[in-house]
Design goal:
The complex is a heterodimer of chains A (214) and B (221). Chain A is an alpha/beta fold. Chain A has helices spanning 42-50, 71-76, 93-103, 110-116, 132-145, 167-182, 195-200; strands spanning 4-13, 16-26, 31-35, 57-62, 65-66, 78-81, 155-159, 186-190, 204-208. The longest helix of chain A has 16 residues, at 167-182. The radius of gyration of chain A is 17 Å and the shape is globular. Chain B is an all-alpha fold and 221 residues long. Chain B has helices at residues 2-18, 20-40, 46-65, 69-76, 79-85, 90-119, 124-151, 158-185, 191-220. Chain B has one domain (2-220). Chain B starts with a helix and ends with a helix. Chain B has 9 helices and no strands. The radius of gyration of chain B is 18 Å and the shape is elongated. The chains are: A alpha/beta (214), B mainly alpha (221). Chains A and B meet through helix 2 and helix 3 of A and helix 1, helix 4 and helix 5 of B.
Chain lengths: 214, 221
C-alpha cells in the first residue's frame, strides 16, 4: 500500500513560479497537513492533486501508478472540498446533500451525515437561511456520506476545511477525518494551524510549502 | 444518464423556486414585442408583415437575458469544480445545463409566442410554422449561447461579452426562423426552411456541448 506519491512538482500561475520541486508521499491511514503563508501554493497544490490544475512539471502516482494513465479513475478516488461551499440557496439542506451524493454515485445516507456534523435538525430548511458556518458544515457533510461506503473516495483533499467553523464543528470534522484515516483513507489538508491540526497531529505529517518557494 | 437527469431536475427546481430568471425572459419577450406597434403604428396591414421577424428578434434577445446565469452561479459557489470531479463527463454536464436552460427559457417563449402572434394579427396559417420554427430554433439558441456563457465565465461585464460573442452566431437562426413565418404568410412551401433550422440544431447539438465543456474546463484552471 503506497498511497499518494508526488515527485518534483512545479506550479506556475500566470507568469509566476509558485513552488518548485515539491515531493511528498502519504501512505494509507495518514494525513498530510500543508502549511505556508498566503500565496505559497497550498490551494494550487490541492487543485493539482485533484486534477483541476495541470502541473508545470512533475509526476503524481496513486498506489504506484501514474494518475495520468487513468484520470477518470483518479477522479473517482477523490473527495475535494475547496474554499467555496457548493450549496444552492433554493434547495433544502437535505436536497443539497442528496444531489451531490447521487451525482457521485454514493448511497444517499443523508441523516447520519447531517447528524455527524450536527445539522440534522436543519434537514428541511432551505439553505438560504443557513449561516456561513452551517453552510460549511453542510459542505463537509458530503465527506460523511461516502465514508462508510466501499465506493467512498479514499483520497480527501481539503482546502482550509475548518474556516468559519466553531470549536464543536472542528471537533466533528476532526473525528470524521480520523475515522477516514482509520479506514485506511488518505487526507491532505491545507490549514493555518489551530484545533484541527492539534487533533490530527498524531496521525499527520507536515509539509511547509514555504520551503518549496522559488 | 442518471447524473444528467439529476442535474436537469436540480436546475428546474432552482428555476421554479427562484423564478426570477425564467419569468424575466418571458416578461421581457412580451413587453419588448408589445413596444414595436407603438413605434411603427397599429396598421393591421403592417403588423402581420413584421410580426414573424419581430417575434423572432425579441425571442432571441430574451433567450440571451438568462445566458449569463447559465454557469455563473455554479462557478461562483464551487459547484463547477465538483462537476468536473464528478463521474458525469463534463460534456454531459454542459448538455444537461443547456437542456435545463432551454426548458426554463425556450419552452416558456414557445408558450408565449402564440399570444404575441394574435397580438400582431398573424393569420392562423402562420401559427403552426411559427411554433415549429421556434421549437427547432430556440434549442439552437441555448446551445450556441452556452458556448458564449462558458467562455465569459469569470470575466467582468460578461453579459456584454456574451452578446458580442453570441449575437452574430444567432443571425442564421433568426433569418431562417423569420423566413419560415414569411413563407407561411405568402403561401410558399416552408418545409425546406424548417429543415435548414433542423440542420442548424443538429450541428449545434454536435458541437456546442464539447465546445462548452472545453471552455468550462479552461475557466476553472
Amino acid at each position: 500500500m503506497q498511497g499518494l506519491t508526488v515527485k518534483e512538482l512545479d506550479c506556475i500561475r500566470g507568469d509566476r513560479l509558485v513552488f518548485a520541486g515539491v515531493a511528498l508521499a502519504v501512505k494509507p491511514g495518514r494525513a498530510l497537513l500543508l502549511s505556508g503563508a498566503n500565496g505559497s501554493g497550498k490551494s494550487s497544490l490541492l487543485r493539482i492533486l485533484a486534477g483541476l490544475l495541470p502541473p508545470a512539471a512533475g509526476s503524481l502516482a496513486w498506489e504506484g501508478e501514474n494518475i495520468d494513465e487513468d484520470t477518470e479513475a483518479h477522479r473517482r478516488r477523490i473527495a475535494y472540498i475547496g474554499h467555496a461551499d457548493p450549496v444552492k440557496p433554493g434547495l433544502t439542506v437535505c436536497e443539497n446533500l442528496e444531489f451531490w451524493a447521487r451525482l457521485y454515485g454514493l448511497e444517499p445516507e443523508i441523516e447520519p451525515a447531517l447528524y455527524q456534523f450536527g445539522i440534522e435538525q436543519l434537514a428541511d430548511l432551505p439553505a438560504r437561511y443557513l449561516s456561513a458556518g452551517q453552510r460549511r458544515r453542510l459542505t463537509l457533510a458530503r465527506l460523511a456520506v461516502g465514508q462508510n461506503s466501499p465506493w467512498g473516495p479514499p483520497l480527501w483533499l481539503l482546502d482550509e476545511p475548518a474556516t468559519g467553523l466553531d470549536p464543536s464543528a472542528v471537533a466533528m470534522l476532526a473525528n470524521t477525518i480520523l475515522a477516514h484515516l482509520a479506514n485506511e483513507g488518505v487526507a491532505i489538508i491545507a490549514s493555518h494551524g489551530g484545533l484541527l491540526d492539534e487533533s490530527l497531529s498524531g496521525h499527520a505529517d507536515r509539509l511547509d510549502l514555504q520551503d518549496a518557494a522559488p | 444518464m442518471i447524473g444528467m437527469l439529476l442535474l436537469i431536475r436540480r436546475d428546474l427546481m432552482l428555476a421554479f423556486r427562484g423564478g426570477t430568471d425564467a419569468a424575466m425572459a418571458v416578461v421581457f419577450f412580451i413587453l419588448a414585442a408589445t413596444l414595436f406597434p407603438f413605434g411603427v403604428g397599429p396598421d393591421p396591414e403592417v403588423l402581420p408583415r413584421i410580426g414573424g421577424g419581430v417575434i423572432w428578434v425579441v425571442a432571441l434577445l430574451a433567450a440571451m437575458l438568462s445566458l449569463e446565469r447559465m454557469f455563473s452561479a455554479d462557478y461562483e459557489d464551487g459547484s463547477l469544480e465538483q462537476f468536473v470531479l464528478s463521474p458525469l463527463p463534463l460534456v454531459l454536464v454542459a448538455l444537461a445545463k443547456i437542456i435545463a436552460h432551454w426548458l426554463t427559457t425556450g419552452v416558456l417563449l414557445l408558450v408565449a409566442a402564440p399570444v404575441l402572434a394574435v397580438f400582431y394579427n398573424l393569420p392562423a396559417a402562420a401559427f403552426l410554422p411559427l411554433i415549429v420554427s421556434m421549437l427547432l430554433g430556440t434549442p439552437t439558441l441555448s446551445l450556441i449561447g452556452a458556448i458564449g456563457a462558458a467562455l465569459t465565465l469569470g470575466a467582468r461585464r460578461s453579459g456584454v461579452l456574451i452578446s458580442l460573442l453570441v449575437l452574430p452566431l444567432y443571425i442564421p437562426v433568426l433569418i431562417f426562423g423569420a423566413l419560415v413565418v414569411d413563407g407561411a404568410l405568402a403561401g410558399r412551401d416552408y418545409g425546406n426552411l424548417l429543415m435548414v433550422l433542423g440542420g442548424f440544431l443538429l450541428l449545434a447539438l454536435a458541437a456546442a456541448p464539447w465546445a462548452t465543456a472545453a471552455a468550462l474546463r479552461q475557466s476553472i484552471e
